[in-house]
């Protein structure tokens, strides 16, 4: 993938946008979790959504995958409105949230077969697709074992396989590598790249700046419920380079530059504790 050049949250959405939001916001009672998000993500793009804990990343994702109804604004995913055409959105997306919702008493094969049936896949079609996703995430012999015996990395890969069984056009990954060891994290990165190369649009939320730098065509930084800045990792680092002396700027410097007034701490680098 080649990085896109759009840099302003207010730019108009291209016609081939996989995700487009205007003024998207969500309140919980008197608390505002997401103030107003204007965002466009093109078909085939990997977009990294950054922000400190509580900035609004996960709430934004939950609105886009139809788990939360927006309090204001609009959003379309895969060409369908997340409120008025929620069922159409769900048919076209894959979702792997922070905590994998996997039944520990079932085997990996049983869970994948159930997921395939929920999306209307039957017989040879379901079997073929199950073999494809198992090969993609490399579960191997573990497919016949109960999920309770899986390591954290294996469970994460099974959750990713469940999200991919119906060949979604847009994949949402909400902090997919939090808590994983470096080897498992590298494996997830490899799978994300492979999926994207096959044409899947990916929205990735992460607290690991190295992860966003390595994977994303563009990144956006949410600060206090708004998209403060977005662009390619290289462009964002170049923009803050004049404020950094003696070394090359990093995405950590981008984060600090745009959140200095909030007093929030830096995001952890990849491999550190979440």
If you had to describe this structure to a student in words, what would you say it looks like?
This protein has 274 residues and is of the alpha/beta class. It is built from nine helices and ten strands. The protein has a six-stranded mixed beta sheet with strand order 6-7-8-3-9-10, with helices on both faces. A four-stranded antiparallel beta sheet has the order 2-1-4-5, covered by helices on one side. Helix 6 (182-197) links the parallel strand 7 (170-174) and strand 8. Helix 3 (108-118) packs parallel to helix 5, helix 4 packs across helix 5 (152-164) and helix 8 packs across helix 9. The longest helix is centred in the last third of the chain and has 16 residues, at 182-197. The model is unreliable at 1-14 and 262-274 (pLDDT under 50).
How are the elements arranged and paired?
Elements: E1 17-28, E2 31-42, E3 46-50, H1 57-64, E4 72-77, E5 80-81, H2 86-92, E6 93-96, H3 108-118, H4 123-137, H5 152-164, E7 170-174, H6 182-197, E8 201-205, H7 209-215, E9 218-223, E10 226-231, H8 233-240, H9 251-259
Helix pairs in contact: 3-4, 3-5, 4-5, 8-9
Which tags fit this structure?
alpha/beta; 6-stranded mixed beta sheet; 4-stranded antiparallel beta sheet; disordered C terminus
Which of globular, elongated, flat, extended, rod-shaped describes the shape? globular
Q: Biggest sheet, strands in spatial order?
A: 6-7-8-3-9-10
- Beta content: 15-25%
How many strand units? 10
Range of helix content: 25-40%
Figure out the total of helices.
9
Mean pLDDT: 84
Gyration radius over CA:
19 Å
Low-pLDDT stretches are: 1-14, 262-274
Q: From the structure provided, what is the oligomeric state, counting identical versus distinct chains?
A: single chain
Major sheet details? 6 strands, mixed
Element pattern in H and E: EEEHEEHEHHHEHEHEEHH
Distance between the termini: 28 Å
Helix/strand/pairing category: alpha/beta
